[in-house]
User: Fold this.
Amino acid sequence: MTQTLYDTRCSIGLQMPERSEPIHPLRTRHIMSISPLTITPNTSVYAARALMQQCRIRHLPIVEEGRLVGMVSDRDLRLVLPSPATSLAAGELHYLLTKLTVGEIMTRFVMAVSPECPVPEAIGRMLGHKIGALPVVENRQVVGILTRTDVLQAFLKFYPLSDCA
Assistant:
């Protein structure tokens, strides 16, 4: 027996099988990136930007004595970097960027989740606060990071690509 679910915005019905067994929600630990790169608050903006570019990542948790103290994103860095049209000489620009630290620009009150957090709850937090990543913390230690990319990769695992004509 199947239930038909209808979206009120369109006339397409989805056939969903009935489930007799309880549904166990997918947990953050199942889809997070484990052991993410982290930096300390005294890391220069220049070094953080270089690390993010080299590793092709957009978010870096900031830790001090093993504890999460902040988060920095590629957007945070772009906002403090000078425009390409700046009148500063290359040497002056490099000097300024090595003196500015991520501790001065980081987001301090970071929303984090535990590895046991249900994925829908974590996604709800990301959407509700318009953030692209959540550090995953256990016993005050950063054990992972959940990003939009992780969520999309998990979605593809459950709903593989098919040929669309």
Observations:
- Helices lie at 28-31, 45-55, 74-80, 90-99, 102-105, 119-128, 148-158.
- The CA atoms of residues 14 and 46 lie 50 Å apart.
